[in-house]
Here is the input.
Amino acid sequence: MGNIKELLKDRILVIDGAMGTMIQSYDLTEDDFRGKILAGHNMSVKGNNDLLSLTRADIIADIHESFLEAGADIIETNTFSSNSISQSDYNAEHLVFQMNKQSAIIAKKTAQKYNRLTPKKPRFVAGAMGPTTRTASISPDVNDPSYRNITFEELEGAYSEQARALIEGGVDLLLIETITDTLNCKAAIFAVNNLFDELDLQIPLMISGT
Here is the structure.
């Protein structure tokens, strides 16, 4: 399979579209999101799309395939909110590592299928790391601009856990995506670079802002 950095010297690579939008088209129920793993959970988890990698892997694989069929060179893992900070809103922090690793495995397996079908058009998997539901440099309280509900260290820890699981699952690159706060982004970069040093590994790192 081609090296992504070498391929980028020759042509533009196309990334996939919105996972969340595609998921909405399936009209899923609470039970789809819960599956067996959260059958007795103490709150609703409908809308926690990342859980579907554990409970409806077939749907996530179908969505990946649809983007690959459309010509995508890079597909993103279903992990936009698969970090302990975002998952705390659903009391699902204990599933974070599993969610990331399984999401990577699903995407990688789908990409490999298409690599076998079209070996001259290599496909890649980007481990998606979203912005989290908290920001390090913006106060959530308009009456107290100095207040912060997350620290740099907490963000670093969450991003490190996510990146480690995505790498274990076999992603080809990491994507720090939809960043609205540059301090969050710095925490993610710091976590990823430290992890690369620890693992003696280097894979491409992409960043998108909004």
Remarks:
- The mean pLDDT is 96.
